[in-house]
Amino acid sequence: MADSTMSDAEKIRMRRLAKLGGPQNSGSGPSTPNQNDTPSPSQSSPPSAPSAATSPSAAQSTKTPTSSEQQKQNPFAQLGMKQEQDKKGPPQITVRPQQASPSAPAKRERDGSERPRSKQREPENLESWQDKSLRSIFRVSLKPEETKDTHGNHLLFLGNARAEMEQEGKPVRLSTDDLESAITEMASNAPGGKPFEYLLACFKRTTRALRGGRFSGPDDPKREVLKEARRLCMSYCIFAVTMPEMFENVATTTNPLVDHLLADPEADVGICTDFLDEASARMDEDDGIGAAFTSAAEDLSRRLSVVDMNGDYHNHIRGLMNLMRYPKICDVITQSEMWAPPGVAAQDIETQTLLGPFFRLSPAQIEVARSYFSAPKTRDRAFISNAQNAIRMTLRNHQTELFEIVNSAVRHRFPGKEAPWPKDRMLDWFALCVNKNHKKRAMRVNYKEVSGDGFMLNVTTVLDQLCEPFLDATFSKIDKIDPDYLRRNPRVDISDETKINVDQKAADDFYGQTAPGTSGFVSECFFLTVAAHHYGTEAAQERMSTMRKSVKRYEQDLVAFEADRHKYVNDPRYLARFEEQLNKIKQHIDDTWSTIHATHGILLDDINQARSMQFMRYVIVWNLRLASRQNLPKEELKLPLPEEQADVFRCLPEYFLEDIVENFKFITSNIPQIMTPQQCAEIVQVCVAFLRNTEYVKNPGVKSGLVTILFYGCQPFYNHARGLLGDLLIGSPFAHKHLLHALMRFYIEAESTGTHTQFYDKFNIRYEIFQVIKCIWANTMYRENLAKEANVNTDFFVQFVNMILNDATFVLDESLSSFTKIHELTKEVSSAAFSTLSEEQRKEKQELLEDQKGKAKSYMQLTRESMETLILFTEALPDAFTMPEVVQRLADMLDYNLDIMVGSKRANLRVDNAAEYRFDPKALLTDIVKVFVNLSGKDRLVVAISKDGRSYKPENFVRAAELMQNKSTMSPEAIRAWTSLGDRVATSRAAGDEEEEDLGEVPDEYLDPLLADLMVDPVILPSSRQTVERNVIRQQLLSDPIDPFNRTPLKIEDVIPNDALRGEIETWKAETLARRRGEKARAAAEAGGVEAMDTSAG
């Protein structure tokens, strides 16, 4: 009756209030809790009889308020007006006041009056709690009408489970006793036909309930219920992976672990550490678990093999990383057939081994390089630098994750289990990477048959990190690196590698003698990392250098190709093909530059390079320990090295030194600021040691690389005027003692490097040596050591001086000849007759002109350096450069070039844009005169100049003095010294001419067969039995140590003095001169009417 007087809005509001199920008073004031309310649903006793306040009669006797009164009433005051609900209606919620304890103060209302405490809810019994908790965890219902829970999650109806309970007469509620039979029904009806996903979510909810529940103690029955539910969830998760056919309606056909490994572990569908903990603990009981994880890791790898750094790769890395943290899971994964298959090709390691796709990810991949360096030819240095910084940050994070994967496998221990462990299999995989990629260092690399540079750089970086624990600054663990490792069935294959200083047969004999014992982990890592640097970092540097050269050729070809467009412009078919080919060339050029920028950006990572240098410190010290047989670094290195070389050093692969050279060449030329003083000292030691003892190293390229390191180390950068190594070389006692001799020795040896480019190589090597000498020349101690070298080791020093003269003579001649040809060709091209030539002839002339210009630029730079070196050395050691063996050649060279510079042909040196070739005639003339002046105090030079019958001209000295005075290129003192030298040479020339005239015709047997000069110190060559002048053959042997008559090897020590002939020549010369001078004196006396003096003997 009351409802009939209510509006629809009031009815709706009353129904909502009724769901709260609480009693209320009819008044609008504060309600008083009813002590006779029905019990909470957790109680098992039936509800008590309703009180008078809630009886229907009481409700009917209550006056029905009007509409306006209802709006003014407190709606909660109407809770007491609710009639008793039908049993099938919504459940009643009764709030009971808690009984106030005597000691606790009563809560008060806002007006200050006491408010009685609500009654505490009676505890829920275990069966009801169990049913409610299990239904919430598994999100199921035993009532068909319940399709969603209070949070809106869909519920699975367990029809079969309900039917079984009713059939057995059990209460319709879930318990752990029924759970195992019901869980199959749950999984079979899992959403989307994904039982594993459903059970995994149940497992995670159970875990959260266990972790966040409030239990009375460790033996609380509720805890046991949840633990049992968790155990069953895990068991059936395993079944869903290993035996999915036991469930109905399964939609997935692949390993379901993979998708969930890719998900966030914190998400409901992500595999968390609790799941992996439980699975790992059960692996001993069920072999299928290990197989499932192995299959999942393989599937992760396959999926990642088609992804690059532009894609979403992080989840794959995280998935494998999470698996590898568990020893048992890691152990089974490393036993996969995909781990390190022996038959895999080098180019397939990145995609067909389990770890390959993870290490393959790199900015050096072409698609990634394109995205970072799009349109590279249009980008400025700032853009490229920023992009390189970005790829370094990205790659650095990725490499850290790769190291965590590897380090997990390496650190796992299995006490009591026989090898191999995951650590051993990880080393096997690294060995596979380096052993399959030997062709990366071939003369001509087919990059389709080897692993990518990005892949190998990642391998190298991770191995560097793996070595860090034993790379301490004090070298305390260097003894753990076993020199006999390569003779003990090593993982690293060196059978095809060139050895440091033995042939292949000697190396095979040495390594055929197996060493006893076993190799430790430190040795394994050390040798693998050295090999990885050779095939990784150094190979990438070499390829980048090769690409720089090739892309320049492509750019030249592109210009020539575009010039032919006019040939196809009138034919659309050929024009389209032309455009297609043109675009291919442009794309190739862009891709090459993108790859160059990406690779260079990776290599410029200062953190990785610093780690690499720390490893190279160990390689340096370890090599020197083997070569010197000293306990380095505890002892100071002593040079020279022992004459007898240790087999263990001679038979090492050549890359043990190449890695040092290439690594530090790159560092000193690109990022020298990251090197520490201690590393600088060690690199100086290794460079000086093997340049001082060049016989220890067979490959001239390695030795020239040592010079290059010193050269780059002396180049200025930032605020270091003498570069990275200059100050160290100037101040180091070790360098004072050995550096100059080492440089001089290799300067001589560079004459013949044994390569097809040796002619050009020697000039590059000697140029770098010049720069190092110029850097250290500020220290007078080096000059004093050079003087001692000249006095103590005369033959060696003469050979060195001779090489300097050879180079100076050659480069001066080539550069000045090039200017003459440029002058002539320029005149010819500018003449009217040039237009009458055919197109082919004109093109030939123009190409010849450009070739001469290129030669002039190259040789002119070498000329300036050679002359500067001559000035330095002749100023410090005038005696050494006027020794009989070299003084005549020096005088001839200087006279010849002086004649070109100031003689009648000097006009031929005039060229347009002389500065383009760095040609400064005034400076070059000054340099030549300075060498003359430095040696002007030596009579041997005066005599040698006067004997030069080809180029010496007195007027050249006069003309040179005039030019220097007019141009003010030299001081007055130097000009006076120059003039004095010219006068003395003229006097000596007159005396020499007079003597030659007096001697007249010299018998042929007294003439040197090579130069046709009168012999002074004749010697017999032991092989050909020819007699020659000692100084002539000495000079010949300085450049070519063979007998010039039969090409057999010859040393100056082997020649035999011909004392009899020498005495005969001296007698003949003395008698001839005395006779001729006597005749002249008599003739002069007769002409003057004076009796001639008797000059005959007796």
Automatic annotation (TrEMBL):
Domain U-box: from-to ranges: 1001-1075
Its UniProt entry gives the catalysed reaction(s) as:
S-ubiquitinyl-[E2 ubiquitin-conjugating enzyme]-L-cysteine + [acceptor protein]-L-lysine = [E2 ubiquitin-conjugating enzyme]-L-cysteine + N(6)-ubiquitinyl-[acceptor protein]-L-lysine
- Record bears the keyword Transcription regulation: no
Key words of the record: Cytoplasm, Isomerase, Nucleus, Rotamase, Transferase, Ubl conjugation pathway
CC annotations in GO: cytoplasm; nucleus; ubiquitin ligase complex
Q: Where is the composition biased (Basic and acidic residues)?
A: 106-129
Q: Which terms under GO biological process does the entry name?
A: ERAD pathway; protein polyubiquitination; ubiquitin-dependent protein catabolic process
Q: Which residue stretches belong to region Disordered?
A: 1-129
Here the segments flagged for biased composition (Low complexity) are 38-68
Q: Which GO terms describe its molecular function?
A: peptidyl-prolyl cis-trans isomerase activity; ubiquitin-ubiquitin ligase activity
- Annotated Gene3D superfamilies: Zinc/RING finger domain, C3HC4 (zinc finger)
Composition bias of kind Polar residues appears in 23-37
Q: Which PANTHER family match?
A: UBIQUITIN CONJUGATION FACTOR E4 B, UBIQUITINATION FACTOR E4
Q: What is this protein called?
A: U-box domain-containing protein
